[in-house]
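Here comes a specimen:
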Amino acid sequence: MTLSALEAHPRPDLLRLPYDDYRALPAIANSDLSRLRDALNGRYEKPASMAGALGLGTAFHTALLEPDLYEGGQPGINDSLIWWMVEGVRLKPELVELLDTGTPEPSCVFTEPGTGTLCKLRADLVVPTADQGYTIIDFKTTAARDYDHFLAQCSGYDYDRQAAFYLDALRADRFLLVGVQKVEPFSVFTVEVSPHLLEEGRAKYLKLLRFLQPSAQVPASLSEAVRDITGGINGG
């Protein structure tokens, strides 16, 4: 990126926002792009309410990243399982160092320069580096059998799209995906997202963002999803 481009699109500030405030921001999130992808694949569903039982993934992220906020005894959550998974991560010295020096759950709002779309993200962990760059870490609960199985999931589950979306927005140096098994032996698989995967992920998110442009020719099968997603931005 040239100096003029950097000046036109400065790195967005990292914001410390409650999750509900983040969700209310009128901008496109990676989860919106997943809904649009599902519509393309013929399986679109309107977003479900966030009310109800706490999910395992949410409970794990809270315990790992903001342990002071963790509330035990929630319906449907095995607290022992959650802390075994956290212990699996904390047995990795390199991950402990990142957890101890990074900012957990930061949010940001940015304009994607290729499409001019107002977007937002909420990263698991952002770690500043000595040269004023960033490392982004995203933790995934997984049933992957081993490292290779988790690596295959990175593309199949569109983790590559998320990585490119976040890395490009924050102009980060690298993106780490950390898969944490949710069954014994609670192994941890760390994948540094490669330039090849980032290129594939970038193509995915740009394709989806183009469907959200006012001038886009949207297939009838996508119209409901596009209307739902853009309505949140336009006050609909």
Notes: The chain has ten helices and seven strands. Residues 1-7 have pLDDT under 50 and may be disordered. The chain has one domain: 3-234.
